[in-house]
Design a protein that fits this description.
Radius of gyration: 20 Å
Number of helices: 11
Shape: globular
Order of helices and strands: EHEHHEHEHEHEEHEEEHEEHEHH
Strand order of the largest sheet: 3-2-1-4-5-6-11
CATH superfamily of the largest domain: NAD(P)-binding Rossmann-like Domain
CATH class of the largest domain: Alpha Beta
Structural class: alpha/beta
Distance between the termini: 45 Å
CATH topology of the largest domain: Rossmann fold
Helix content: 40-55%
Length: 321
Amino acid sequence: MKVALITGITGQDGCYLAELLLGKAYRVIGAVRDVGVARAKLPVELAQRVELVKWNMSSQAEMKEVIERVKPSEIYNLAAYSSGSGMYDDPVGIGDVNGLAVLRILEAIREVDTEIRLCQASSREIFGEAVESPQTECTRTNPRSPYGAAKVFADASIRIYRQRYDMFAASAILFNHESPRRGLSFVTRKITYEAARIKLGLGTQLSLGNLDARRDWGFAGDYVRAMWLMLQQSRPDDYVVCTGESHSVRELCEYAFAHLGLDYRDYVREGEDSYRPNEPALLVGSAAKAKRELGWSPEIGFRTLVSMMVDADLQLLDAKT
């Protein structure tokens, strides 16, 4: 039986990945800061099927002890400071958890068993103010935040250990990916949640920033499948994981409200206080390499994703009223 160790298992991606691996008969272990708190955060059915172990992102010695004890065949590092509005809040903490911690994991693996396969969840934020569009694995990194800079450091560490120690370490360069499990601080979930509130008579207006800002949005369940595929290959490599499609915040609003029989123009206001200008280059990726080498492509389209999120928020709010 394969054994997978997942950091960040209580997050959106961690939950979907755990469910995917359990469906493939893995023994799934979540590496968490607090076992009790983590178990309470997990969906009930998932909490009953995974094991949880205490894990300290700041201690290589403790990482090594856990890896020696559980003997994972695969490690998925999904734990990180948020890439949403908190990208600048704690630059030192972000650098430690999103950057140095990856180096600690690599060192712990090197000391215990170099046959362990590692997938690092990277981010499109490594491109920052992108120098070209679409962005690929060869696009020059140009981070614009401590979050992006820490991810660049982590990616470089992955490549160094892959080359120097012949370790199976790979970075998944994930573009924006959403789901009903996305946190409310992210604009996608904020829109679907508020649309559902308005439909139920619990709200009247939604204030957003630049409605013409565009992103490459996909479904988190599709993206964790790509990460799993990366660790099933004969050799490790880094892959951009994206849809290759660009959609605006305005389109997201239009689809979310229309799904509820509403016109977003009656409720959405563009607030100058949260306005962000358009990026100089379109933030959209190319997953050609992942499609060619992994046989991966997204299964859930943008409009279906938005409808899925709206329905989940409607059900969530309806249950509370």
